[in-house]
User: What shape does this take?
Amino acid sequence: MPTIADMQSQIEIYSTMGALSGRMADAARANDWDQLVQLEKSVRMLRFSLEALPAANDLLSSAEIELKRSLIQKILDDDAEVRRHTEPRMEHLRQFLGARRQHRRIEKAYASPL
Assistant: This one.
């Protein structure tokens, strides 16, 4: 059975994830892809620890439920901001890699035998 400590830990984890997601959005806006990747790894580890905790919203007060809801909303909003900056970059990379693959196929097709 979940305890009050589990719920406090859950809120602390969401709070830390919220702070990290804000830093991820800042890194995405600054095109700091290395920092973004490192922060994402930290958030992923927190998500795993959160999943290991038992769910027990029935132990939360209405204020704690609202805090949890607002933290989750902040994380989702930050995620949308990160995607707004990363998706165009990912599309550019897909096009670049696709063009490189096609160029190699053409070179291979027209390479003169030695």
